[in-house]
Amino acid sequence: MTSRTVRKKQRSRQPERISQLTGASGRRFTEQDRLKKRELKDLDKKNKERVEELENLQQHEDELQEKTKKIKELNLSYVKILEDQAAEFTERAERERKELLQLDADHERLVVELAEELESKKEREHLLVKLQPYADIFERAAKLTKFKDAKSLADHMENLLRIRESLLQQNLQKREKYDELRKTLQSKQEQHRLMRLQKTYELSQLEVEHEKVRSEVLDWETKWNHIQETASKKTLLLGQIKMATLNLYEMTCQDKKGEEVVDINDTEKQLDMVRMFIKDTDDIVKQYQNSSQRQEGKKKDKRSFPSHHNKKASKKPLA
Known about the structure:
By secondary structure, the protein is mainly α. The protein has five helices and no strands. InterPro entries: CFAP_domain-containing.
């Protein structure tokens, strides 16, 4: 609870207290009402003035608190700025320290390179002194040749060395290519040999299969010849049977008139006709035998018909 709220409650309670005091004094001291009312008004006025002063003080206090809050925020932002600046200064110092270390390393490297360069220069000077006699020899040799000076002779010899190196390189490349081609040829020869072995094996397998098939063909040819021979025999036998059947048919049924003419190649129907003839003849014979037992006198007349028929049948020989 804030001080402003407390003061408001006190102001709300003061009129009640004043009314209580005035009521009690009115009952006891009726003659002094005006004086007390005036005093109460003065007190009320003073109270209002104090309340206004308290409100002003409270407002001033609130303003001071607001200013204090702003000052704290400014202090915090200032501290943050100081921290950022400190971090930036630290980072810059670290970066400058690294750059300084890099400069020291570069300086040491340059010192080493300078020492190496000086050493190389000394070696070149020493080599130049050592090769000076050869330079003199080149000068004298150049005077004896068509070259103008020793440098031209040296350039010519350098060109010759480059040509020699190029020829050696070409020879080496050709040698490598030759080795590669030789390896390729060996590989192809090996592949050809393996393929030839494979084809030889396949050919042997095919020859075995060919012999097997040839044997089967011979077996089937033998069977076919046997079938043809059997068929020929069967055909010949069938022809003989047909001729015999035709002869029987002609012998038995040629005297019958009014019946359907059977085709010469219809052997089955011819056999049926012969069978019917035999059956009819058998019936006739049975009837004849029965009648012969009853009539012995007519036996000669009954026998004349079969004998006459047999004479006609004997005229055509059997096939």
